[in-house]
Structure formats: structure tokens, C-alpha cells
Design goal:
By secondary structure, this protein is α+β, with helices and mostly antiparallel strands. It has 3 domains: 161 residues, 7 Propeller (Methylamine Dehydrogenase, Chain H), CATH 2.130.10; 165 residues, no CATH class; 226 residues, MetI-like (MetI-like fold, Orthogonal Bundle), CATH 1.10.3720.10. The chain has 16 helices and 31 strands. Strands 6, 7, 8, 9 and 10 form a 5-stranded antiparallel sheet that branches. The longest helix is centred in the first third of the chain and has 43 residues. The protein is elongated.
């Protein structure tokens, strides 16, 4: 008889070479797995830290101040210069003096380039000068016989052997003929000019306080643009004899005229109809004992800057009052200088400006950001004028003693401050301070608006409505699935819900925007009927179930009762949508969206309700799966022990199971919240992407993630817009970090608290 070998005889001896090799191999795999998992965890943390520091690296330049550096100093003639300007490359400068002499010279050395001679007549004596708007290069001289000459500074750029050549020249928009501005031939004490391709307007003030407005409309020949005719419009306003006007400015659109007298009064005229100038307002611009020492338009010609003898600078701009009339308002002021402001130099394309005071200090400011970027000594002699380059990276100052100083400016991102990012800002032409995100526009006088508040609010709004939909459905569904549902039915339901998480969010967003949003708009009463009737019908069905014969109820296997609710849910949805037009006709005159508008509740087709439904649908699988696992993982001996002690299944669920599973449930909710906060495609496609601060469920919003996705491809690298988008990403990153940290802390405390159950 053959004896069968035992299992023990098949295995190698504990100290045999084979067993030693097996143990060594197993230990190697254990160590490799341990180190691999540790390396993976450390790598994830390292990658997250790198992302954080990269975002921080891109964002930090936004909050740097301005810096100045003297690049060149030299001596010029000591003529009384009334205007100085730089070209965009900071290498060619222009000056105009009080006697009508103009000069182009090298900005770094003062070496002369050209000195064009203006076509004055032999007896001409210059009595006034106007530099027009700094961005157009148009200027004008007023003469003592009431005539004026309009000319323009231009630069012709050519390339020779790949080297840039700049040729400065003077052109005459209205020809070289002198214009008769003062009809009586009186000297022009003050002059203001603005010009564009279609119209030129001059305003002159004579010695006897006669204000003359002259409008010249240029009409070019259809066949030849060099052939043109000029239509002239003229009017006069006699000012009071005792009114001593010290400053006069005409806006770039040639519609508004401002006068300042020696008493500190600011007079505002509407000259859109040149033939009939209209006085809008006369207001005291400075307190008694304080004088207006500088007066300039901000870029765009909407705001005016008033420099005062006490060192304060005020920003004014017109607003519509209750009667739809414009009135001037002092919107903001800057108090960082203690000496009289003698010169103001607005930037060409931003709402910033430079100010020079009587002690030679230079201040750099930005209006909308309410930010003082720099106040530093610049000159020993404050009797100087300034010219800022078009790119706002260069400054040329000329003192009355002939000293010229070329300064380099480093001021890349003045628009950004805590105030402009997170607080209400009073922007030009707005009737009140507001939270606004508007990064681009087709308007020449556009002012970028980078408030992150409406974007952050939109992110919170999207997450709130999504969680309102997802949390009750996911948690209640997980409780029933894990605790009451039969095992066989659970094997069908749980994988089905979890596979929903694999649906691409771009598909969900596409369906939400193009399919669900129109259905919701056309059937609003039906949608709300579903939300109201479904809980009622569910409770009613459960009540009726208890009234059915016991024999029928016992014929349904335990845990399959929920299947009865499927036809109930379908029936409620079908009936609600069928009855929606009838409800809308009875209750809302056939048009619920219009009815909402009539009662002051705005309605957009792509709104928060649609986002809440669809994003809630996307978040449900995450919360459901983690919650269901947490509840199902509660040790069975706790459940059995509770039931054995006489507790009902419901008491066991609420007092034992849910408490034990609470760390996992809380984690599920926080992970779902993080998913909702970071969602991009659904928010992008299912809302109108309007950055507004309104919690109305029927209006849209713009979230941080969607804003980054929309605008990052069009943002100029290293621009303020680009860096602010990275700041939005950093805010989103930090919010997710805070949520996860809070969730982990709370989860650990819940685990410790209920670990003794």
C-alpha cells in the first residue's frame, strides 16, 4: 500500500535554502512596497508644494511697489519750457517753450536732433500754450492777436541694417494757416485744444474774460484723403470780470470744459453743442485757504485731478443725479504729500498718475486701486515740468534752470491692491462703488476691473446649490443602501451610482447648457412641482405601504421595498412636467420667467438652478460612495448588540451606526464640496458667466475656475491680467487646502470621540 505524503512534507524546512530565499524575497517586496508608497506620498506632497510656490512666484510681482532710478542728467538751455514729452522708447524727447520755440533732442544726452520752425508771422508774440491730450500729441500756441496755431508731434520709424531709426517731425492737422480764435483780436491768456481725425476744438480765454469756443469739423474728400474741407462752429461766453481763471481743460472727446479760478471754484460746461455751451455746475473744489495748484485730466478724459496747495490730490468725475443730469463728485483723494502739488503727469493708458510737489518729491499713484506706490525725493529745484513716456516706464523732468533728469520707472502692476481685489471700487462713470470683474473692453478709455469678490462669490454660490442637491440625496441614499437594502440589490445599485462618476463633466455641462436649461426655462412650475411633490409622494407611498395586507408586504423580499418608489418617482416627474403649462397659466399668467422679472427677481436661462441640478448630479457619486462605505464598514457586532438590547433598527442607525460612521460621512461631504468648488466645465457651460454678486437662484454667476479657463488663453504672459488669473488659481488652491485641512481635523476628532463605541 502506498502512503500519501502529508502537506508538511511538501513544504521546505524552515531553515532550508529555499525557505530562506522565499523569506528574503518576501521581505524585499515588503520593503519595496513600503518605500514605494512612502516615496509616492512624499512625491505628491512635493508636487503640491511646488505648485503652491510656482503660483506664489507668478503672483508676488503684483504687490510690489514702484521704483525709480536716475538714468541720465544733463544741462539744457534755461528757456522757460512749458511742455516736455518722451517717445515710447524713451530715447527721443520734445520740448516747447513759452516763446514758441520747439526742440527735439536725445533724451539720454540732451543732444539736439531737430528744431522745426513753426509758421508764425513776423510780429507774432506767444501768449499761451496748450498741450492737448498727452496721448494724441496735438498742441497749440495762442498769440497776443487772438490767433492760434495747431500742430502735432509725431515720430516716423524706419529700419536701416536692422537698426531702428526714429525721425521726429511736426505736422499740422488743420494746415499751417493760423486760426482766428478771438474775434476782437485780443490776446489769448489761456488756451485748450483737443483734436482727432474728425474734429478739432479750441477754447481760448482773453484778457477781458471772454471765453471763445471754436469747433472745426474736418471732412475729407471721398477720392483723396489729402483734400478736405473744414466746417467751422463758434460761440462766446462772457465770464464775470472779477473771476480770475487760473486753469482750463477740455476733455479728449471735446464735450466737456472745466475752468478753475483763484478762489478754488471749479466750473463745469457742456460744449457738446459748440454753438450753445451750457453751464452744468459750479462747485467749490477746495476748502477756504487752500488753492488749486495743478489741474489735469486722467487717461480717458473722464476724471479730473486737482492738485492742491496743501499737498492733497483729489479725483473728480461727473455722475448722473436723480434728474438724469450730470454733476461732479469728489470720488477719492490722496494725502501722501505735505507740500503744494506743482505738476501732474497722468499715464497714457492706465488710471495712474505722477505728482511733483514744491519740495521736489515725486509721488506715483493709481486711482482705482487707491494705491500710493511711491513718494520719494526727485529734484532739488521743484520749479520743473514732467513728461512721462507712453509706456509709463520713463520720466523726463526739465527744471527752469535748464537741468534735465531722465528717470527710469518700474511700475508694472499698479492696478492691483487689496482694495481693488476684494473691496468695492468706485470706477469712472459708475454711480456707486461696486464689485466688478471686467478684464477687457473695446473702449479706448477702458479701465481694467480685477475684483475677485464676484468670482469667489460665484464659486461659493455654485458649490452651495450643488451641495443642496447632492448632500441629502447622496447621504440618504447611502444610508438606505448600506443599512436597509438587500445585498443583491446593493450589488446592482452601488456600482451603478459609482459609475456615474466616470461621466465626463464636459458632457454634463454640454447637456446642461443646451438641453436642460431650455427645458427648465420652459417648465419652471413643473420643476418646482417635482421638488415639492416628490418628498410628499414618497412619504405618502411609505404610509400606504404600511396599510397594505401583511401577506402582500411579506411577499416582497426584505430590502427590495425601495423598488416600489421607482414608478412613483417616474409618475411624479411625468405628471409635473405635463401639468407645468397649466400651472404656469393659472399662477403666472402663462410666463413664469416674465412674472419673476416683474416682481424684481431676475431670470437667466442658464442659471444657478441648472448648475445646482447638474453639478449636484456630478457630485452625488463621490459623496454616496464614501458615505456608503463608511456606514457599511461599521462593525456588525455594534449593530447586532444594539438590536439585541432592544433598540429598533432606526434607533440603532441614528445612535450607533451614524455616529460611528460620522468621520467617513464628514469626509465624504468635504470631498464633495472640494469637487464642487473646483468644478470648471459644468459651471463654464451651464451659466451665463456673468460675474455678479447676487444669490438669486434664477441668475448665473462666474466661478474662479471657469474664469481661469475662459481668460487664460487670451491673457498676455506676465501682464497684470495674467498674474491676477494666477492669483485666482492661488485663491482656489488655498480654499481647497483649507477645506481639506478642516475636514481632516474634524474627522480625526470625530474618530477619537466615537472610537469607544
Amino acid at each position: 500500500m502506498v502512503e500519501h505524503s502529508s502537506i508538511g512534507s511538501v513544504l521546505p524546512a524552515a531553515n532550508s535554502p529555499v525557505a530562506i530565499r522565499r523569506r528574503a524575497w518576501r521581505e524585499f517586496k515588503d520593503r519595496a512596497a513600503r518605500y514605494g508608497v512612502a516615496l509616492g506620498g512624499v512625491s505628491v506632497i512635493f508636487a503640491i508644494v511646488l505648485i503652491f510656490f510656482y503660483l506664489l512666484f507668478v503672483v508676488m510681482p503684483l504687490f510690489g511697489g514702484a521704483e525709480i532710478e536716475t538714468e541720465a542728467e544733463y544741462r539744457m538751455s534755461d528757456n522757460t519750457v512749458v511742455h516736455v514729452a518722451l517717445n515710447e522708447y524713451n530715447d527721443v524727447a520734445f520740448s516747447a517753450d513759452s516763446s514758441g520755440y520747439i526742440h527735439f533732442f536725445d533724451a539720454h544726452s540732451g543732444k539736439g536732433i531737430s528744431s522745426p520752425v513753426l509758421p508764425f508771422h513776423e510780429d507774432a508774440v506767444v501768449s499761451s500754450f496748450s498741450k492737448g491730450d498727452f496721448s494724441t500729441g496735438v498742441m497749440a500756441y495762442g498769440l497776443n492777436d487772438g490767433q492760434a496755431l495747431v500742430f502735432k508731434r509725431e515720430y516716423k520709424i524706419s529700419y536701416l541694417d536692422d537698426k531702428r531709426q526714429i525721425t521726429p517731425l511736426i505736422t499740422y492737422p488743420l494746415g499751417e494757416t493760423l486760426l482766428n480764435l478771438a474775434a476782437q483780436g485780443e490776446a489769448l491768456a489761456l488756451l485748450s485744444v483737443q483734436s482727432n481725425d474728425e474734429q478739432t476744438t479750441l477754447v481760448g480765454l482773453t484778457k477781458n474774460n471772454t471765453l471763445t469756443v471754436l469747433g472745426l469739423v474736418r471732412e475729407e474728400d471721398f477720392m483723396d484723403e489729402d483734400v478736405f474741407t473744414i466746417e467751422e462752429k463758434r460761440s462766446e461766453v462772457q465770464l464775470p470780470e472779477d473771476e480770475n481763471i487760473t486753469h482750463m481743460q477740455l476733455d479728449i472727446d471735446q464735450r466737456e470744459l472745466y475752468l478753475v479760478d483763484d478762489g478754488g471754484f471749479l466750473t463745469y460746461y457742456d460744449i457738446s453743442d459748440i454753438s450753445q455751451p451750457r453751464l452744468i455746475q459750479k462747485i467749490k473744489a477746495v476748502p477756504s485757504g487752500v488753492d488749486v495748484t495743478a489741474f489735469e485730466f486722467l487717461a480717458g478724459g473722464i476724471s479730473i485731478l486737482v492738485g492742491r496747495s496743501d499737498g492733497q490730490i483729489d479725483q473728480w468725475f461727473p455722475l448722473r443725479d436723480q434728474d438724469n443730469n450730470y454733476t461732479l463728485h469728489n470720488v477719492r483723494h490722496f494725502k501722501n504729500q505735505n507740500a503744494a502739488i506743482v505738476e501732474l503727469a497722468p499715464e497714457y493708458s492706465r488710471k495712474g498718475f505722477l505728482a511733483l510737489n514744491a519740495e521736489g518729491q515725486l509721488g506715483i499713484y493709481h486711482t482705482a486701486a487707491e494705491r500710493t506706490l511711491l513718494v520719494e525725493p526727485l529734484l532739488d529745484n521743484a520749479n520743473a515740468i514732467m513728461g512721462i513716456s507712453p509706456r509709463a516706464n520713463g520720466l523726463l523732468t526739465l527744471s527752469d534752470d535748464g537741468k534735465a533728469v531722465l528717470t527710469t520707472l518700474d511700475n508694472e502692476h499698479p492696478e492691483v491692491s487689496w482694495h481693488s481685489l476684494w473691496q468695492e471700487v468706485w470706477y469712472e462713470s459708475r454711480d456707486k462703488p461696486e464689485y466688478i470683474w471686467q478684464s477687457s473692453s473695446a473702449s479706448n478709455d477702458f479701465e481694467p476691473k480685477f475684483s475677485l469678490s464676484p468670482l469667489t462669490f460665484g464659486t461659493i454660490k455654485a458649490a452651495f446649490y450643488a451641495m443642496m442637491v447632492a448632500v441629502p440625496l447622496a447621504i440618504m441614499g447611502a444610508i438606505y443602501t448600506a443599512y436597509f437594502m438587500s445585498p443583491k440589490m446593493r450589488t446592482l445599485v452601488k456600482p451603478t451610482i459609482e459609475i456615474m462618476e466616470a461621466l465626463p463633466t464636459v458632457i454634463l455641462g454640454f447637456l446642461a447648457g443646451l438641453w436642460l436649461a431650455p427645458i427648465v426655462e420652459g417648465n419652471l412650475p413643473g420643476v418646482f412641482s417635482i421638488l415639492v411633490m416628490l418628498p410628499i409622494m414618497t412619504i405618502l407611498t411609505a404610509y400606504l405601504w404600511t396599510k397594505l395586507p401583511a401577506s402582500f408586504r411579506e411577499s416582497i423580499p426584505d430590502g427590495w421595498e425601495a423598488a416600489i418608489l421607482v414608478p412613483v418617482v417616474v409618475l411624479v416627474g411625468f405628471v409635473s412636467m405635463i401639468m407645468s403649462p397649466t400651472f404656469e397659466l393659472w399662477l403666472f399668467n402663462g410666463d413664469m420667467p416674465r412674472w419673476l422679472d416683474d416682481i424684481g427677481v431676475g431670470f437667466d436661462q442658464r442659471n444657478s438652478l441648472v448648475v445646482g441640478l447638474v453639478m449636484g448630479f456630478a457630485v452625488i457619486p463621490t459623496i454616496f460612495s464614501i458615505t456608503e462605505d463608511a456606514i457599511f464598514g461599521v462593525p456588525k457586532h455594534l449593530t447586532i448588540g444594539s438590536l439585541a438590547l432592544g433598540a429598533t433598527p432606526w434607533q440603532t442607525l441614528t445612535r450607533v451606526v451614524l455616529l460611528t460612521a460620522s468621520p467617513g460621512i464628514f469626509s465624504a461631504v468635504m470631498i464633495g464640496l472640494g469637487r464642487a468648488v473646483g468644478e470648471t466645465m459644468i459651471v463654464l457651460m451651464a451659466t451665463g458667466n456673468t460675474p455678479i454678486m447676487d444669490f438669486n437662484i434664477f441668475e448665473g454667476f462666474r466661478a474662479l475656475s471657469a474664469n481661469i479657463a475662459v481668460e487664460m488663453p487670451e491673457a498676455e504672459v506676465a501682464s497684470t491680467h495674467y498674474r491676477v488669473l494666477f492669483l485666482a488659481a492661488l485663491v482656489l488652491f488655498m480654499a481647497t487646502f483649507v477645506f481639506n485641512t478642516v475636514a481632516e481635523v474634524v474627522r480625526q476628532r470625530l474618530r477619537v470621540k466615537y472610537s469607544s463605541l
